[in-house]
Design a protein that fits this description.
By secondary structure, the chain is mainly alpha-helical. 71% of the residues lie in helices and 9% in strands.
């Protein structure tokens, strides 16, 4: 894998993290986890926190590789 390949991959992953942040943050779609017993649990806050960290990590990686 070349440096350019890593840049493309990191850019795609950052874009996906930002897309999810928009959906679950700005747009307000709720993320639900369905348990084996059929109950659901809202995990929106966890998804937003995780994707915020992902976007920042990929942004840093892109800066280092650029």
């Amino acid at each position: 894998m070349t440096k350019d390949d890593l840049l493309v991959w990191a850019s795609q992953e950052r874009a996906e993290a930002l897309r999810q942040l928009n959906l679950f943050g700005a747009v307000g779609i709720k993320a639900l986890l369905q348990m084996p017993d059929g109950t659901t649990q809202e995990i929106t806050a966890g998804v937003v926190e995780h994707q915020t960290r992902n976007a920042a990590a990929f942004e840093y990686l892109i800066a280092v590789l650029s």
